Amino acid sequence: MLLVSGFAKRFLHVIWHLRSIIFALFALVVIGAVAIAYVEKLSFGDALYFSFVTGLTIGYGDIAMKIIPGRYVALLIGFIGGLFTGLVIAAAVEVVRKIYHNKCGRLGKEVPITIFWLRWPSLPRNIGSREGGET
Q1: CATH architecture assigned to 2-100
Q2: How far apart, in whole angstroms, are the C-alpha atoms of residue 101 and residue 135?
Q3: Distance between CA atoms of 60 and 44, rounded to whole angstroms?
Q4: Each residue of 30-89: pLDDT tens digit?
Q5: At what angle do helices 68-107 and 2-17 cross, to 10 degrees?
Q6: Which one of 2, 51, 64, 81 is separated from 27 by 20 to 30 angstroms, measured CA to CA?
Q7: Helix or strand (DSSP H, E) at 66
Q8: CA 33 to chain CA mean position, Å
Q9: Model pTM greater than 0.90?
Q10: Of 35, 37, 46, the residue nearest 80 (C-alpha)
Q11: In the chain, where the domains are located
């Protein structure tokens, strides 16, 4: 449980530093919703729903764009959603990397990686360095 709470705390810390980028991507999705509402003559609520479903790459298919400019806007929203997803995954990977390196440095040895019930062999402590290999 301590590892999960440590991960959550560090993850939120990294996300806090990325808040301006996340806000900009969020704003672009809302602007896309405004554009879709105008072009496709949808209510703003339906356009906002479509934008977030598309941006999060869920894509239920219950609302589809009928006009070509609306489809282009939907493609841009999907691209923005891909950037957002990649950003969140990169933040999570950075936190896991920091936790792993802190754990290795504190113990002064190689530590096997365990995620849920899966266990991988240990990696060298200087895995992120340019030299690689053993220290």
Answers
A1: Orthogonal Bundle (1.10)
A2: 14
A3: 18
A4: 999 999 999 999 999 999 999 999 998 888 889 999 999 999 999 999 999 999 999 999
A5: 130
A6: 64
A7: none
A8: 21
A9: no
A10: 35
A11: 2-100
